[in-house]
Specification:
The chain has about 70 residues and is α+β, with helices and mostly antiparallel strands. It contains 3 helices and 3 strands; from the N terminus they run βααββα. It has a 3-stranded antiparallel β-sheet with strand order 1-3-2. Strand 2 and strand 3 form a beta hairpin. The longest helix is centred in the last third of the chain and has 16 residues. The relative contact order is 0.17.
């Protein structure tokens, strides 16, 4: 049986987000965010073992999604 986990709280004022934080902000799964990075739909910078996604890239992706829904 899978236990319920509370949704991660994300400080939206940060300059960059981990993949897990980006997944919460974009309402996607962690793997979906990884796929978006691999396909180049979202840019991420690798720092050591972690990928960070700049806040502006998150905003841009959300803006593009909104435009696609409106058309």
């Amino acid at each position: 049986m899978q236990s319920w986990k509370p949704r991660l709280k994300v400080d939206e004022t940060k300059a960059a987000f981990t993949l897990q934080e980006a997944a919460v902000l974009l309402d996607l799964t962690y793997n979906e965010v990884r796929r978006l990075i691999q396909t180049g739909e979202i840019e991420a910078k690798k720092y050591g073992l972690k990928y960070l996604i700049p806040r502006n890239d998150i905003k841009w992706f959300l803006f593009q999604q909104k435009l696609e829904r409106e058309n």
